[in-house]
């Protein structure tokens, strides 16, 4: 038996039984729920608590990021939407239509991220429309974070259910 065969038998390289997939899932949701509209959420707490320069820094950072997001949406939004829909369709077809496990795993990572982008865009549009600053901005960012965290809980739960189903269906020995 070669070294490669021995390692392949000891280390399961399937997506849902791989520890690195679950670590990537946790890191992804942790990062998505920490950075709201490109600003670390702890800045919201500091701005609310201390005001002054902290609040001005948050206002500036969010304004810059909101303007960047809206520029991208206005200049290339249709193309990016088309590309995202194409990639998601390919992953969904490969994963769930043709039972390719890696495509299922990537789809269960990427599809929720596209929903987070939509939540961020809706929040950015609201902030831009109302020219939110101060307490209105903090409230909008807190609501955005809450929605992302709720989405994260649901998506992690569904991913875990699907991963457990796949692991039980395929079996411990991969066949």
Give the tally of β-strands. Answer: 2
- Terminus-to-terminus distance: 20 Å
Characterize the main sheet: 2 strands, antiparallel
Q: Given the helix and strand composition, which structural class is it?
A: mainly alpha
Identify the quaternary structure here: single chain
Share in β-strands: under 5%
Helix/strand order, N-terminal first: HHEEHHHH
Number of helices: 6
Roughly what is the average pLDDT, rounded to an integer?
89
Q: Please compute the radius of gyration using only Cα atoms.
A: 20 Å
Walk across the major sheet and give the strand order: 1-2
Unreliable stretches covering 5 or more consecutive residues? none
**What coarse outline follows from CA principal-axis ratios?**
elongated
Helix content: over 70%
Task: Describe the structure in your own words.
- With 175 residues, this protein is mostly helical.
- 83% of the residues lie in helices and 2% in strands.
- The chain contains six helices and two strands, in the order H-H-E-E-H-H-H-H.
- Strands 1-2 form a two-stranded antiparallel ribbon.
- A hairpin with a 2-residue loop joins strand 1 and strand 2.
- Helix 4 packs antiparallel against helix 5.
- The longest helix is centred in the middle third of the chain and has 46 residues.
- The radius of gyration is 20 Å and the shape is elongated.
- It starts with a helix and ends in a 5-residue tail after the last helix.
- The model has no long low-confidence stretch (mean pLDDT 89).
